[in-house]
Each structure stands twice: as structure tokens, then as C-alpha cells.
Amino acid sequence: MEQRVAVATSYPYQGVQFEVAFRGAEMVVRTLRAGADGRPQLVEVRAYAGPDGGFHPYAFERQSLDAQEAVEALDGAPWKSCG
Prior knowledge:
Order of helices and strands: EEEEEHH
Oligomer: single chain
Number of domains: 1
């Protein structure tokens, strides 16, 4: 069985903190944003590497969080989402 190792980084872009992780041909991008109800939401987009060299999104998830979960959500470990 092939073992894949995730490569991850966390960085700010225009004042927004993002986490990006790569595992094999998959890329996961996570960030926090304000939801319509004012609660923080964890937003996660998954994409696969296509034969054209680009990444193609295939999944988009939003999850409302409470204050403690929001603090813990972007803890520098986006590979948790990669499996």
C-alpha cells in the first residue's frame, strides 16, 4: 500500500490566514470567515491535480464553529483533513 505524506503550510494572505496542504495529487485549502449568523465558519476546499497541471476543485464544505473551535480550527495542521 502506498503511503502518502502531507506537506502543509499556514500563511496570511491580504490579512486572511490560510492553511494549504498537499497529499499526493490532492490539495486542501482551509480558512475561517464570518458566517451569515455572525459565527465563525471553517471553509475547506479540496482540489485534485489534473493532467493539465492545474488544480480542479471537487469539494467545498462550510462548518459553523463556536468560539473555542474557531481558536483551534487553524492550528497549523491542515493535514488532519487530508486523512
